[in-house]
Design a protein that fits this description.
Blueprint: E1 5-16, E2 22-30, E3 33-39, H1 41-44, E4 48-55, H2 63-70, E5 77-84, E6 96-97, E7 107-113, E8 118-120, H3 122-126, E9 163-165, E10 169-181, E11 186-190, E12 200-205
Amino acid sequence: MSVGILGTKLGMTQIFDEAGAAIPVTVIQAGPCTVTQVKTKQTDGYSAIQVGYREVRPKSLNKPKLGHLAKSEATSLRHLREYRIENSSEYSLGQQIQADIFSAGQIVDVCGTSIGRGFAGNQKRNNFGRGPMSHGSKNHREPGSIGAGTTPGRVFPGMRMAGRLGGKQITVKKLTVIRVDTERNLLLIKGAIPGKPGALVNVVPANLVGRQK
């Protein structure tokens, strides 16, 4: 696994390429992140670094977390994330990781939390079709049959029904970095990513397997 970066989704816009075609992009405030811990195979059994992001007031964190951050002389950081790498000796405590670790044209995976929709019905949650809308029909948006009767006499696990929609961790893979603004630490990534503006996202280089075009 490679080193990624934590960031904040700012929203979506569009830019134009040299041919004048519009490209929908998501703007991400990428970092800066601070290295808060360096793990080695000798001390921890594997090689990794831990980074922190989004400074908050010290009173917003508990004492164990503040004590952990004090070892790297980092400020009060809300979010911590670990990245496994081959050689962690290339990094040091307090080192800053910024958007310049990515380049235009690079393929990345973006992980975030989807927008929570609350309790949703069968049609909206599972993309089911509706019943007939003609006069006399009593099955407009009802779920329909959820199983047989006496045999098996129960509803099978995993039956798609109404329930909570969204608010889950979603990873969108193989997105393209269109532009990197190193001065403002911005990433412009083609396409949509999970979450609403202001949501925390994790951007990592994609793990490409097989023949690439």
